[in-house]
């Protein structure tokens, strides 16, 4: 089977929604507030980021909760276009808890935003290997990275897998509409 792309991929793939995960219920205090601001949105980025920073500076936490707070602050920063800062937070989270799937999912998303598609593949592979809670998003993001590195067939299969894991998810459905599959006859 040979895949043929219907429209130019690079611009369309980047315009598509990338998914980011914040899947930690941290509990009480500033760490919990950081999680809530990340999950539910925020009115003022600086205020939300400061809550997370204060939690990291002032609150006693387990290594896993500290790593989760770094991920949540990284997500806030990524949403604001502060990709290098978000990558620094993800790096700190990986040092604390190297087997935390959402760290790698979000690292891959930040690298996609930076258009470093080749570099995004390895952390997304790791998120998939670790069965990140938002596995559908890891496949989706890897599909974007693969397509932008020329692996059109791999991208197609990743978008399919994303949709299989989260049926009816519009971003994956939209990506798949851009492909046609032809027999290699």
What can you tell me about this protein's structure?
By secondary structure, this protein is mainly alpha-helical. It has 2 domains: 1-19 and 134-185, no CATH class; 20-117, Serine Threonine Protein Phosphatase 5, Tetratricopeptide repeat (Alpha Horseshoe), CATH 1.25.40.10. It has 10 helices and 2 strands; from the N terminus they run βααααααααααβ. Helix 8 packs antiparallel against helix 9 (152-165) and helix 9 (152-165) packs antiparallel against helix 10 (170-176). The longest helix has 17 residues, at 63-79. It starts with a strand and ends with a strand. Residues 1-26 have low confidence and may be disordered.
Q: Can you summarize this structure?
A:
By secondary structure, the chain is mostly helical. The chain folds into two domains: 71 residues, no CATH class; 98 residues, Tetratricopeptide repeat domain (Serine Threonine Protein Phosphatase 5, Tetratricopeptide repeat). The chain is 68% helix and 4% strand.
Chart the SSEs and their pairings.
Blueprint: E1 2-5, H1 9-15, H2 29-40, H3 45-58, H4 63-79, H5 83-96, H6 101-113, H7 117-129, H8 135-148, H9 152-165, H10 170-176, E2 179-182
Helix pairs in contact: 2-3, 2-4, 3-4, 4-5, 4-6, 5-6, 6-7, 6-8, 7-8, 8-9, 9-10
